[in-house]
Specification:
By secondary structure, the chain is mostly helical. It has one domain. 88% of the residues lie in helices and 0% in strands. The chain contains three helices and no strands. Helix 2 runs antiparallel to helix 3. It starts with a helix and ends with a helix.
Length: 100
């Protein structure tokens, strides 16, 4: 119990507060970057869904337009696979580094 009460009464120095503030700022920036990435992924999924709907109802659209949508789907999928492979490689490298 004494250790809890002494921790409550302990005050941080200016340098400690600055360090904590810098840490929180860095975490905030990292979380913001993750949020932006998640929003980008959601947008791409929405685009993909729309494109697949158009392709599925191709009889209502011109062949050129459906072909354009098909090419866009291929680009999105190819990009996603490349990003997945890159993330997998980075994860493998990180795992190897922690094992060594």
């Amino acid at each position: 119990m004494d250790s809890k009460s002494t921790k409550k009464n302990e005050k941080l120095t200016y340098e400690q507060l600055e360090s904590v503030a810098n840490e929180l700022n860095m975490q905030c920036k990292q979380l913001y970057a993750k949020l932006q990435n998640a929003q980008k992924v959601i947008s791409e999924f929405n685009d993909l869904g729309l494109l697949l709907d158009i392709i599925g109802k191709g009889e209502y659209f011109s062949n050129d337009f459906v072909e354009c949508c098909t090419e866009r789907v291929e680009k999105l999928v190819r990009k996603a696979l490349e990003e997945y492979d890159k993330a997998e490689e980075e994860a493998n490298k990180a795992t190897e580094e922690t094992q060594n």
